[in-house]
Each structure stands twice: as C-alpha cells, then as structure tokens.
C-alpha cells in the first residue's frame, strides 16, 4: 500500500474513532414554575437557595433569558422550538377541559433525543394538553411519566377543579395522595438516576410544581424565614427553599451514581413571578401575564458538562424556543428543520456572543385582558404594541406588607395602540418610553412584527368541554385522556 493511502486510512480511522467516542452528556432540564427574577439567593440574599446558587455560580448565569408571559406557551416553546403564535398556543394556558394540545405533527425534544439513544423521563407538570392519549407524555417521546396534566393543583391532595390530577405513566397515582409533590418528584428522579445504566445517555425533564400557587409548604421551610412578616411571602420563600432542597438531593444522587461530571443541567423559570401570589421580579417591571421584562425575562442558568468558561454571566439574548435546539446541539443529535429556535450551544459553552439578535415576546390577538398583545425585541430595543398585560409597576419583596399588587386592566385594550419603545440595555427597568423620540425605530419594529404576523395562527382556545368532566367522573374522579 502506498504511503499516501496509509496516511488516508489512518486519518479516516482517527476521525471515525473521534465520532464513535464522542460522549453524549446526560441532560437534566429543570423548569421552576413562576419563579421570579429576584427569588433566588444569587440575586437576593434573603432567599435560602444554596444548591441553586452553587450550580449557578459554578456554571453560566443567563442575564437575558426570555420566555413567554405564561405557562403553556413557554412549555410549548421549550418542547418544540417554535413560537406559540405559530401553533395556536399563544393565549393564556390550556384549561383542564379544553380540547387542545401541542400539535401532534411536531417533533418535540424527547423524540429527537431518543433517536440518538437517550433514555427520556419526565417528572412534574405537563400542561400541554391531555384530551387525547396521543397528547400525553408517554406518547410523545418520554419513557416514563410521573406528574400532572394541568396547572395549579393542591400540593398535597393533587386536585384541581374537583378532580384528581396525579398520574404515573397512564394510570392514576393514588399512592401519592397526601404527599407534598416536591418530595416525591425528587425521590422519583433519584430512583431513575440510581437505576440508570450509566452507559446510556439520560434526559431528565423536571418541570417542578414549585413555586406556583396555591401557597403551600411544610411549616419547617416557611419557618426558615422568621424575618419575613408577610405570611404569604414567608410561605412562598419556603416553597423556593424546598425546591432548592429537591434540586440539591437530585444533584447529590448524580454524584453518588458517578454521573455528575457527565451531566449538563439547565434551569429556567417558565415566566416571571406571579406578583399576586407573593413572587418577586425586582427590579424589573411587571410580572407574569405581561410583556414587561418582569413577565418574560427570567432566572436561568446552565451548569456542568461541556461548558468551557464557567463562573460567568452570559449577557447574550436567549429565548424559550432556543432550548430545544441548544440541548439537541449539546447532545450531538440531529436538529429539527424549520423551527424558530437557534442552537446556542457554542455561544454558551465558549462564552461567545449570542446568535440571536431578535425575538417575539408574543403575538396574541385574542383580546381578553390577562396578558400582553404584541411585542418584539431587536438588538437593544423593545417595542410592546398595545395592551402589555394585566399588571404594571415595580415591587420590592413583600416582606413587611400585607398587600400584593392588584391585577388590573391599566391600559385600554386597543389593538396595536399605543406603541411603547424602550432601550432595555440602558433602561432595563423600562422607566423611559422613547417612542416619541425615535418614530423611525417604532415604524421599523412595527413592520417587523407585521412580517411575523404572516405566519400567525389563530389562538386555539376553545370553550371548556363537558366531555372532559364526564370522562373524569367515569374514571373515578381523575382527569383523564380520551374525550377528544
């Protein structure tokens, strides 16, 4: 054999060996429900979150990570990489008796990871529809499921709107009745990790119930905040701390199993804090249900495997639709074509500028005054059009007051008017509306929103169905699929 051919063969072999030996990381994707921008210790020293703080400080904190104003839209973006206004899920959330789910023609994150050998598990909140079995987690790429389909269950009774909503795969999880969800969600995650074959990559999706209302927590956690005199805020803080403890227990189990060094952990909130439920987004404006920064700019970070620069804050733009392609990128799996998300893995792991220069906060023409109407971010500029959401203002933590902000329709519901313009780099608190100063920017950003509107899908927000109630009654008082 000629020397040149030998060199070629060696090169091919070496390249092949690199491909074969490339390690796919284990991935833990944590979603903290309604966690505020100011509800973690690394921003607010009053909060007791040592495990979250350690992960964040040893990883990459995202200073400009954005989501949708409420739950179902954000979760649909996490799983599909597509803006909710293109799937009909942009308006409020999926109700318990609504005949709708994340469109079944979409390839979602666990399905793509399974193609490259991942074991996939979900523990916690689904909230992407359940009227048909095909809408539910174990039919959409997850190997196992322990959690609930809806939004704001009782933490102990696991009931919503009069029916039980805790499920283990396809059966009711009656044996968890009376147990606080953060405890057994963490225990199930620990069981999965302990029993997992370390040679197979693991994807663990952990959309926790904490810290969404109702305000419920074992007293010992609330008692860790004796300086907080507001009952609601004190118990809310306890709910954050029990979430932190759960994350710490899961992290320790990864270490005990020998998986921690090979695990990439992503944590994000699904929207800003619910101010009327004692959460806090200080110093940002507004909260959940709004297009203000307090409703859409959230606590988020990555920690663990693959990150080349750590202990830093990444300032580049990131959006909920980016998490699917970014985690796929970290896993070395094939990207899904035609989505809105951008693979930001190299930007994050190498601390390079974000590949994103703009995003849509939301487009929602279904006029009910509970969340914002339309908004865009391009570079430093943010343009909300029309009604921005149901609550406005700036609120410090409610440690010493009995009052929470009142939800109120502050602004007239008049379509795209008025237009507001903020430079959110110079003015992250959105104090100074610059629309009158820069009419050309307002015009350009409005035109860009209108380009996005060409792919707008009308909100799929049907009336509640009595068939769902009948099905729950037939199934022993449990919210169940099979009625659409």
From TrEMBL:
Molecular functions per Gene Ontology: metal ion binding; sulfuric ester hydrolase activity
Keyword Metal-binding assigned: yes
UniProt keyword annotations, A-Z: Calcium, Glycoprotein, Hydrolase, Metal-binding, Signal
One Pfam family per UniProt: Sulfatase
Top-level taxonomic group: Eukaryota
Domain Sulfatase N-terminal: 25-333
Listed cofactors: Ca(2+)
InterPro entries recorded: Alkaline_phosphatase_core_sf, ARSB, Sulfatase_CS, Sulfatase_N
Keyword Hydrolase: yes
Family assignment from sequence similarity: Belongs to the sulfatase family.
Name of the protein described by the UniProt record: Sulfatase N-terminal domain-containing protein
